[in-house]
């Protein structure tokens, strides 16, 4: 297999073979992330992809799922993704589900009709790290788009019938803009129809711009309690009929079908706020080194 550089798989998806179709991140400017800082973006050569699909077929011919990996492989054009799907179906005829990560900007170069065609070919779900629905926060962390872009582009996925995850990055706005980040993110999410809403707490990893700004006093990170209070504001205002998943850098493990469990989830969160061990949780977060 032609696995190169940093490789990340969605840990919440069912086990399935990983097929790398891009390397690096097309944006690579988010202030909280160094995952692909030393990995230039490029597309995997088609001969690599075909060789890797053949290798997967030798070991798991009857697989019905694939994860297409890279930071944001959905950036590839409709034509390029279609060619990759054709290769996959040639050697793995039972594949029905292909998932991958995406940026909001990746959707812009595809029409709704093209998205519908990709859905028919098996690209049924994308994972989108929107992080915030608040313009001030999006600019602050250099995401490269605004809240109206999120709604405009992601609604195309709704129309095409492609499922998607949306993530909320808890704490990324800092103390000064925490409430607006939480409230405006919920407002944007509520205009869309994600199958999963994921949230994780900001960790200031070594080497990130946001971490360096915090050292200089230019960024005011939230305490563990403040992070959970921000999450509560977000969830109180969230009305998405989706599954809720908390990622591995959050202080609590909250999960479930959100709307039917909203009261229970908020009660559990409030109990965590009332009884948290700030020192212990801060120590756990400070010992993390990567996502």
TrEMBL record:
The keyword Hydrolase does not apply. Coiled coil: none annotated. SUPFAM superfamilies: Radical SAM enzymes. CDD domains: Radical_SAM. Its cofactor is [4Fe-4S] cluster. Keywords: Iron, Iron-sulfur, Metal-binding, S-adenosyl-L-methionine. The keyword Metal-binding applies. Residues 11-248 form the Radical SAM core domain. Gene3D superfamilies: Aldolase class I. GO terms for molecular function: catalytic activity; iron-sulfur cluster binding; metal ion binding. This is Radical SAM superfamily protein.
């Amino acid at each position: 297999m032609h696995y190169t550089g940093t490789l990340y798989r969605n840990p919440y998806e069912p086990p399935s073979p990983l097929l790398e179709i891009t390397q690096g991140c097309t944006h690579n400017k988010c202030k909280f992330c160094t995952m692909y800082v030393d990995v230039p973006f490029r597309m995997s050569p088609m001969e690599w992809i075909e060789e890797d699909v053949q290798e997967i077929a030798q070991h798991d011919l009857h697989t019905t799922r694939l994860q297409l990996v890279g930071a944001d492989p959905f950036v590839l054009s409709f034509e390029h993704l279609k060619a990759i799907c054709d290769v996959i179906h040639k050697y793995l005829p039972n594949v029905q589900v292909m998932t991958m990560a995406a940026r909001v900007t990746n959707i812009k170069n595809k029409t709704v009709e093209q998205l519908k065609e990709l859905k028919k070919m098996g690209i049924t779900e994308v994972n989108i790290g929107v992080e915030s629905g608040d313009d001030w926060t999006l600019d602050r962390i250099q995401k490269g788009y605004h809240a109206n872009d999120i709604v405009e582009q992601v609604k195309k996925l709704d129309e095409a019938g492609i499922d998607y995850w949306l993530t909320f990055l808890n704490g990324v706005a800092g103390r000064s803009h925490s409430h607006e980040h939480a409230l405006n993110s919920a407002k944007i999410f509520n205009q869309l129809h994600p199958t999963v809403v994921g949230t994780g707490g900001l960790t200031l990893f070594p080497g990130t711009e946001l971490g360096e700004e915090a050292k200089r006093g230019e960024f005011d990170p939230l305490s563990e309690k403040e992070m959970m209070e921000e999450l509560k504001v977000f969830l109180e205002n969230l009305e998405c009929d989706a599954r809720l998943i908390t990622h591995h850098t959050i202080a609590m493990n909250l999960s479930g079908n959100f709307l039917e469990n909203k009261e229970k989830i908020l009660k559990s969160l409030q109990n965590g706020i009332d009884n948290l061990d700030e020192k212990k949780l801060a120590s756990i977060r400070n010992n993390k080194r990567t996502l």
